[in-house]
Description:
This protein is an alpha+beta fold. Helix content is 21%, strand content 32%. The protein folds into two domains: 19-136, Roll (Pnp Oxidase, Chain A); 146-229, Split barrel-like, CATH 3.20.180. It has five helices and ten strands; from the N terminus they run αβββββββαααβββα. The strands form two sheets. Strands 1, 2, 3, 4, 5, 6 and 7 form a seven-stranded mixed sheet that branches. α3 packs across α4. It is elongated, with a radius of gyration of 20 Å.
Amino acid sequence: MRTFGAHAHPAVPAARPTDAERVRSVLAAAHSMTVVTDGLRAEVRHLDGSDPLGRLHLHPADSVPAAEDRPAVRLEFTDVAPTPVRDRVRARVTILGRLLTPYTQEGTESTCLEFGRAVLETAESTAYVGLDELEIAEPDPLAPYEAGMLTHLLDDHAELVTLLLRLVRPQPAAGVLRALPVAMDRYGITLRLESRDGHRDARLPFPSPLDDVEQSGPQIQALLSKARRLSHRNTLPA
């Protein structure tokens, strides 16, 4: 089976963020989180897109003396698609641990947390991420800008979404009702193809991974140029 546009090379799975990178990206773009400790739930809504790990110092469990009076804590984050697709929740991230210093919403001091584990839940799987992986991983360079980029693409350039459909393999079935951009990261754009019976996601990889947001324009233009070169005319509604 040949990759579309190739002549003799075997199909290669499109590169994707690692689980740890996905967790860091969700945190970097988060505008709110739920803190659960001592049986109480508190909604924190003033993150303003700043990575909450900037105010949390994560410590490995074996680096601090054991103590029974340290309250367990859960930090919950929900990654919601910025476009009006079906099943808008793309991922849920939970960080589990124990508080080493008190946590307050209004405080400006950093909170120390004995790290237990991070849990990444998506429609495809549940993954567990350790502290070593989390500390090494970098958030996606597009994470803080993704929502604005996708809504701009859909609201102001919907015809380009239709154009990108020419790159989808396998080709969308006739029953597809609409296609919407659902995600974008340093490796590519993902379109959600919705039909009466459900939906599927199609990932369109960039020619090369991005190192910063300034490279996104040329990479998107490269995808559009590739789509324009195809003879197939896709008439699915966007």
